[in-house]
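Hello forum,

I keep getting stuck at the same step: I have a sequence, I want structure tokens, and every attempt I make locally crashes halfway through. Rather than fight my setup again tonight, could one of you with a working pipeline run this one for me? It's a single chain of 608 residues.
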Amino acid sequence: MRIPVLHGKPVERPASGEIHFPNGNRARWVGVPTDADPEAVLQALRLPRPQALLLLLGGADEMDPAIGTRLRQLISRGLAQAADEADALILDGGTHAGVMALMGQGVADRGHHPLLVGVAPSGRVAFPAAVPDGQAESQAELDPNHSHFVLVDGNNWGGETQMMFRLASVYAHDIPILVVVVNGGSIAREEVLRAVRRRWPIVVLQGSGRLADELTVSLQAPEQDVADPVMAEIIADGNLHLFPIDGSPEAFARLVLHHLGTRTSLHVAWQRFATYDANANREQAFFRRLQFWIFFLGILSTALALVLTYVNTILDPGGDSVARLILHTAVVMTAAAVTALLAASSRFKAGSKWIFLRATAEALKREIYRYRAGLAFKRLDETHERKFVEQMRRISSQMLRTESGSAVLRSYQGPLPPPKGAASEDDGFSPLTPARYIHFRVDDQLDFYRRRVDELARRNVALQWVIIVFGAGGTVLAALPDQLAALWVPLTTAVVMALTAYFGYQQSESKILKYQQAATDLENLKTWWCTLSLEEHEDPRNFEALVEGVEAILQSELTGWVQEMKEALVRVDTRNEREARRRGAKPQSPDKGGGAAHGGEEDIRQLS
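Reply #2:
Ran it on my machine without issues. Output:
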């Protein structure tokens, strides 16, 4: 047998070969020094290029047998299945013990796919007796279901860690990588720290024992309460995601596939939500800018007309100055600009498009949270998956029948879920246990309502004071005997009318009432859940009642908002059409798409 040279150092014993296990599996192995070139090691293994990489850390010591049974399902039907679908390479410890043995069996269950590489210290593992390599007795057998092994010189557990991470780093530059932590002890703890410092995403199997449960407790504790410096760094800097040990294998597979960049139904749902959300924000911004300039230029047009009147009648009656010509041109131009903006508002219908897109995005978001909550207690089969996909199809099809269906939707290219699309600590894909659902859905929505109520209340008071001041100013000007003072009354009137129209469109007082009502209903529902016993918390029917109650409250609030915004847009459209007629422009008729009031009521009701 030819002895390869790794990192320029020949090895005295055979440095590579093939192991024939009693179960019929054959595995290629290489023996390497601790400082071997990782790319040369991978070349010696003759591995095909994977599309993703899974790094499995931990063990299975001190684990309850019932948890071991559950873990076997998660590894085989979850992790191994996801790795197979993603064409991922799996790296682990390689011994026939604990989670490595479960991983090997999971791969064997899929016809020895995907490839599974074990990295272990050569002095602590035993070859099968059929392999005449002269290896001495060791403490652990190599797992018979692995496809490849890297045996690192050394006699201590943990001596292989550096090589494992160097091998993973070779791939991490080009393909997605995910670290999965199951149980684990002190060695796994140091390995997790290495992964954190490399900014690799980490999924922790909550409830699998030892290190995994320590990470769970530390994640749920305030940052200042984590005294251990290693654990504090892991919690502060790590991209950690929890998955409950009693979650379904299908949900675990979807979470893994998401982090490996594979599109799942939940990934598609978040992508659609992000697209509708981003385009709704864009249409809303366009609509608000359009209305602002209509209001501003309308007031400016009135002010310039008054200045021109002042020049004509008081300052320089009968004159023919350059100032008069400039003012006249400015009046004509601002009036023309207002007319053009009124026509654009009628033509582009940004207001109604924004409302339809927002309603669609929120409808998708409700289905996402219902689906994720179902993953915590249900083992979803293809029927449940198809139901979720059908709901997405129905919502998207409904949107296409509204005025937003004619909008050109710009694709969303950012992270999923999008910023502000979910709570900051929520990865958007993990199953939602009751505690996580309350934290990520209920508490996050309550925080939103409270912030918005405070913002709207302050804006409401400020805007009303501005209206009062300008109204009082107009009254004072009208009461003055000076002809010049009376000349400016129409300007204050125009400002008051514009601000009143804007105030009516904003629906601030109504929004405050609805937000407060929704917040109160959510708090009552949360209180009901907190008063249940531990046994009642374990009943899936109670959790389902909580989820349906929360989503019904949010749907009711959105339905009321949509209806009020439609009515506000009717008033805006009416005002714009009246202003367009006054300025001599021909408004667009309702049957040709004037605004949110012109058709689509049933569609938007179903969306919301």
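The mean pLDDT is 82. If your local run keeps crashing, start a new thread with the error log.
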